[in-house]
Amino acid sequence: MAISNNRVLDIAEGKVTFRYKDYRHGAEQKTMTLQAEEFIRRFLLHVLPEGFQRIRYYGFLANRYREQKLARCRELLGVPAPEPAASEVSKDYSERYKELTGSSLWECPVCHQGRMLVIETLPRSSHRNLTPIKDTS
Q1: What's the pLDDT tens digit per position in 81-98?
Q2: What Å distances lie between residue 41 and 2, 49, 84, CA to CA?
Q3: Cβ(16)–Cβ(39) under 8 Å?
Q4: 19 and 29 in contact (C-beta within 8 Å)?
Q5: Are strands 15-22 and 8-12 parallel, antiparallel or unpaired?
């Protein structure tokens, strides 16, 4: 189901008004009005073709028994179980960064020699500038 009927608030004059959650602002409930054609276009983006099923609700990736089903899939495919992530968790973020990118966070980005040291950490400002930064480019 792409949208439930109780979220559609009004259909009038070729426009559809509906309620949605704005996750960018703390899941705040908001309303939006769209032309009927645009509403239908957006709605159809969520409709699966006949015979398709959403993976998150179906098959070996469904929540119930996922761990056991994935273990069985690995067994049938002859793939070993992944190593526990505890070894990665014990690594420092800078070590992981170097491992993944090949460059060190401690190396000077200009001369690529020596070792960068933290001299001081500035405290976060108690008040934030709420005026937007203007793009002058």
Answers
A1: 887 665 555 678 888 888
A2: 12, 15, 44
A3: yes
A4: yes
A5: antiparallel
